[in-house]
Amino acid sequence: MQAPNTPLPADMTQTVVLITGAAKRVGRVIAERFAQAGYAVVVHYGSSQQDALDTAQAIEAGGGVALLQQADLQDPQQLQAMIAATYARFGRLDVLVNCAAIFFPDTLVDFALDDLERSWQVNCRAPLLLTQAFYQQAQQRGQQGVVINVVDQKVRANFHPEDFSYTVAKAALGNLTAMLAMSSAPVLRVNALYPGLMTPSGDQTQADFEYSSARSTPLGYIAPVTEIADAILLLTRPSFNGAEFVVDAGQNLVRVDRDVINLYRAP
Question: Which of 37, 127, 172, 198 could pair with 98 as two cysteines, CB 3.0-4.6 Å apart?
Answer without folding.
Answer: 127
